[in-house]
Amino acid sequence: MNKDIKTIIINKILELIPSHIKPVDYLSEVLDISRESAYRRLGGKMSFYFEELIILSELLDFSLDELVALKINNSKVVIDLKINKDPTEGFLDKMRKYKADVDNRFTDKSSSAIFALNYFPAEFSVHHKNLFKLAYYLWLHWRDRGVVKPKFSEVEIPAELEELRSNINVKTRRLKNNSFILDPNVFLTPLKLVRYFHDLELINKEEIKIIKKDIHQILYFAEKMMRTSATNSESNNYFYLSSFNIDVNSVYYEWNGKITSSFSLNFFNRIVLTKPEICEAHKEWFLSMKKYSTLISGSNEVAQAEYFKKQREYVDWL
Questions:
Q1: Do 311 and 212 reside in the same domain of the chain?
Q2: Is residue 56 part of a domain?
Q3: Does one domain contain both 35 and 138?
Q4: Which of 44, 214, 238, 268 sits CB 3.0–4.6 Å from 128 for a disulfide?
Q5: 128 and 93: one domain?
Q6: How far is it, in rounded angstroms, from Cα 101 to Cα 99?
Q7: Which of 7, 26, 6 minimizes the C-alpha distance to 16?
Q8: Bridge partners of 78?
Q9: pLDDT, tens digit, 9 for 90 and up, residues 204-258
């Protein structure tokens, strides 16, 4: 491990360990290692294992991006994998960061974004309360290791979370200069998840109807955006249908002279890059993808109709 990174990790851990506890004793106990191993880690002679950093981030309440967001040549890498003991606080943390991203773009009218999507991202669920509740519900299930899982009907959105959702919903609808490169099956993954929880009798038929209604509204809104993009010169929103399956969700942002690339590992967990060379390479990859995609917004009504027919068939299958 790079010496500078080791130093940052060690300093962060020493800063957060309670002052009345000796660091060696603390590490020995929580990591279940010998005192000698603890000394070696604190002395920089041995690196912390990734699993150990996850344990420490949870106990000492820091995020891993605080360790690896190293400003080198005005660039950084942020691994957004912070583990919160409280799943609700973890979801709130993700939403606060998403709101910060939206606010950054909102301050610059010329900001732009290019998305490559192989599944419907949780961030986009903010436009519909029931889909947002589904996103929150899935998060709780993935973070809850208990044997008995709550039913969809038993989950309520906390007031702060609803306020964040509402705020983000208003602002994202007004963002312009967006390009979307869509996988042919972008809506299939969330539908399979709903079907899975229905089979477990955690989501009932009436709730499925409500969720299906929200997804149909999203499809209607996206279809409307595609058809009007040619006549609405101010929005500058473009939709492309990829000729091949997209492996992972990713996005490239430009705002206020800054650039950022983000790759979604799953749900809200992301790797964020700001190193200019990497971001530019990511942008070039997007431009290459457009060559192997079909522009379906504005004029290609046949391709639009075929695409949305397929997506609605997925919804009806649910």
A1: yes
A2: yes
A3: no
A4: 214
A5: yes
A6: 5
A7: 26
A8: 272
A9: 999 999 999 999 999 998 888 888 765 555 668 889 999 888 888 999 999 998 8
Range(s) of the domain holding residue 56 = 3-62
Q: Would you give the DSSP letter of residue 231?
A: T
Cα radius of gyration rounded to whole Å, the chain = 22
Q: How many CB atoms lie within 10 A of CB 244?
A: 10
Give the count of domains, the chain: 2
Residue 253: count other Cβ atoms within 10 Å of its Cβ: 20
267/133 same-domain check: yes
Closest by CA to 123, choosing from 136, 113, 140, is 136
pLDDT score for 81? 55
In a domain, 23, yes or no: yes
What does the pLDDT read at residue 90?
A: 83
Residue 135 maps to a domain: yes
Domain match, 58 and 119 both: no
How far is the C-alpha of 266 from the C-alpha of 306, rounded, in Å? 28
Question: Which amino acid does the sequence have at 255?
Answer: W
State residue 297's pLDDT score: 85
Distance CA 228, CA 231 (A): 5
Q: Residue 234 has what pLDDT?
A: 64
Q: Is residue 67, in this structure, part of any structural domain at all? A: no
pLDDT recorded at residue 151: 93
283 and 163 in a common domain: yes
CA dist., res. 8 & res. 164, Å (int): 32
How many whole angstroms separate alpha carbon 130 and alpha carbon 134?
6
Last residue of a domain, one of 14, 30, 62: 62
Q: Cβ distance 14 to 27 under 8 Å?
A: no
**Residue 97: what pLDDT?**
84
- Residue-level pLDDT at 180: 93
Distance of CA 238 to the CA centre of its chain: 21
Which segments in the chain show pLDDT lower than 70? 1-4, 63-85, 145-148, 229-235, 265-269
Report d(CA 41, CA 25) in Å as an integer. Answer: 13
50 and 82 in a single domain? The answer is no
Contact call for residues 274 and 258 (beta carbons, < 8 A): yes
Partners of 293 in the beta sheet?
242
